[in-house]
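Practice record 12: protein with S-adenosylmethionine.
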Amino acid sequence: MIERLAIDALGTQADGIGRGPGGLAFVPFSLPGETLDIERDGSRAAIERIVTASPERREPPCPHFGQCGGCELQHASEDLYRAFKRDVVSEAFRREGVSAEIGDLVPCPPASRRRAVFSAVRADTRVLFGFHEPASHRISQIETCLVVTPVIAKRLPLFRKLATLLIDRKRELRMTVTETLSGFDVAVDDAAKLTPALRQQAVKLALDPSIARLSVSGETIVEARSPQVTIDGLPVALPPGAFLQAVPAAEEEMARVALGHLAGLKSVADLFCGVGAFALRMARTQAVHAVEFDAPALAALDGARRGVSGLKPVTLERRDLIRRPVTAKELEKFGGVLFDPPRAGAEAQCVELAKSKVQRIAAVSCNPPTLARDATILIAGGYRLLSVTPIDQFLWSHHVEAVALFER
Ligand SMILES: C[S@@+](CC[C@H](N)C(=O)[O-])C[C@H]1O[C@@H](n2cnc3c(N)ncnc32)[C@H](O)[C@@H]1O
């Protein structure tokens, strides 16, 4: 049944929210101020017709927009888009009762994402390769993508071919593609069992000159060249499966804000350090203790810092920071701490930081609600929250990075 609805606001997942005769409705691809005819499925609804469009509505640049769930906000003006992302961050802090000064969004240019995770499924005789449809298990086939780097976009047919070869009968395949200086690092998960014949065909495809490495279910199948990235000009050999910030410009901006806050401190810790996006930069001027659970990532960081002279001392520690956070006592050695945890945040670590004497903390996060929760722990321990900078790394999606600066 068609229902008429006015959209009042954008929710944190980028859906328009309105209340119609059928109750509250969440409507993807709608904007505040619009009047719509919708068809609902419970509280979720699809636009049947836009009765009155918002003046902030614009033509989405990608032909797949609306079908492909990778992007949620191409139809909003630049001003509305930036305000939305900033609001996602401020709303997270508001919900935790933390008053925070939220800066303007640092924007993300199109065609800049060097890492993307594609999905593929069998659909009858075809294989669909692309991203999930909005809030769905179905995959929307894509021919182009305006978010990834042009080099990745150009080679979509090659990635589709690989996915079509390696796909399992029943499972959805995932393919992480990273553009590195030495070629693509392609990691396939949930693939079909690699029979000798399948392996041979995969090797043949992976010998394409654009591919540096192909790994399937964690096993390296072909490594023509070691995938290399640079961090602040230092070469880093990327291990298969290691975390890497998706957009180099966003990584630089996060580092600029976080390192600026910790500047002048002689000794700092980088917790959840990965391959060293922040540790290697800090080591130019400060002694760094870098802590991470993933051993190959730590080894990559170790290799990178050994390759250069003139860095300050870097010590490495493999540690599960969720189960065994660095204690307040251990933190006595550091004037400053940077932490950049997975989406779940750094709750246990913040409990220790709250008891510590660490002077300055820079918290980097891809998940504002857990960042805001962690902030409450630090504030209860006597820290002042000085600023929060939202940084766009996930263009046209509802996801946003933020860097929060604390001091005691
Ligand atoms: C958001 S990434 C940040 C990595 C790095 N700071 C960067 O910018 O590239 C989070 C990192 O936390 C690591 N990690 C996940 N769980 C962990 C745990 N329990 N203990 C320590 N590190 C963990 C991951 O391996 C990953 O490298």
